[in-house]
Structure formats: structure tokens, C-alpha cells
Write a structure and sequence with these properties.
By secondary structure, this protein is α+β, with helices and mostly antiparallel strands. It has five helices and six strands; from the N terminus they run αααββαββββα. Strand 3 and strand 4 form a beta hairpin. The relative contact order is 0.14. About 10% of the residues have low confidence.
């Protein structure tokens, strides 16, 4: 074998080892078209509004994290259930109505990131963002972050008020 041929074969082998897979490891077209991240998020909001804890928590992965609007609110799923179940048990849910939503998929459509604008009677405009993962034929929420947007011109005063509250002034 000539040196040129050996070099060509070696280069081709190295190149093929470096190429990443560009198609998913499964057939995307076989998925139920109603199984979308959007459908999961809509089901989440609907279950919360009717205080259906079983349906609500079935939409999360077992290791999910929920991050609430308060700086202390970072819950694993068990802690979040413990917080929510008394409300759901009394038939008291919460209603967040999506007004805008964006979903971006990972390269193999097994992960999706989202952000959504929501309306809530008590809090006004809020935002939800997070990550969903494709598991056993369903999109499940791995992380959900609920936040409240603050207009930039109001931020300095609000920051001062939060600092004052946290330091007890």
C-alpha cells in the first residue's frame, strides 16, 4: 500500500469518527402528533386550574425541579407536591393563561426548552420557562421556572424594597 493511499484511508477513518449523528435515534414521524411540549404545558395549566393534583404531577419527571417567584422557592418534586397538595386537597388551584409561547427543540427532539407569557388574576403578567424531556411516549416537565417580569424603570426601587425587607429595615 502506498503512503498516499494509507494517508487517505487514515484521514477518511478519522473524519468518519468525528462526524456526529444528524438524525434522531428513533423515527420522529411515529410519534402521536398530539404529544407535543405545548400540549403538556396546556395540560399542566388546565390541571392546576381545576386543582387536579394527580394529573398535574403526572406531567413532571420524577427528578423535576420547580422554581417559584420567591428567592427561597426551589423545590424538588416531593417538596413541591407537599407544598401544593393542601391547596389541591381543598379544591383550590391556580389559573395561569398562556398568551404567548416559544418552544425550541434539541437536535434529536428529545429535549425541548420553552418560555411562555402568562396572565394570572393575582400576579398579573408572569412568565414560565423550563425544560421538557421525551420519556416513554410523553413530554414531561423536568424544570419549570415561574417568574414575574419587572419593568426596567421600576427595578431600582423594587430592588431597594426587597433589600430592605430582607435586612429587616
Amino acid at each position: 500500500m502506498t503512503l498516499a493511499r494509507t494517508a487517505t484511508l487514515l484521514a477518511a477513518g478519522l473524519l468518519s469518527a468525528c462526524v456526529t449523528r444528524s438524525s434522531p435515534p428513533y423515527e420522529v414521524s411515529l410519534r402521536d402528533p398530539s404529544a407535543t411540549p405545548e400540549a403538556t404545558l396546556d395540560a399542566l395549566h388546565a390541571a392546576a386550574a381545576r386543582a387536579d393534583g394527580a394529573a398535574y404531577f403526572a406531567l413532571f419527571t420524577p427528578d423535576a425541579v420547580f422554581i417559584g417567584t420567591d428567592a427561597t422557592e426551589r423545590w424538588d418534586l416531593a417538596a413541591f407536591k407537599a407544598y401544593c397538595e393542601p391547596y389541591f386537597g381543598r379544591g383550590q388551584g391556580w389559573t395561569y393563561v398562556p398568551t404567548e409561547r416559544h418552544v425550541v427543540y434539541g437536535p434529536w427532539r428529545e429535549v425541548a426548552w420553552f418560555d411562555e407569557r402568562l396572565q394570572n388574576e393575582k400576579l398579573g403578567e408572569t412568565r414560565g420557562s423550563g425544560v421538557l424531556v421525551w420519556r416513554k411516549g410523553h413530554w414531561l416537565i423536568a424544570q419549570y421556572v415561574l417568574s414575574m417580569p419587572v419593568p426596567n424603570e421600576l427595578a431600582p426601587d423594587l430592588v431597594e424594597r426587597v433589600r430592605a425587607q430582607s435586612t429587616g429595615r
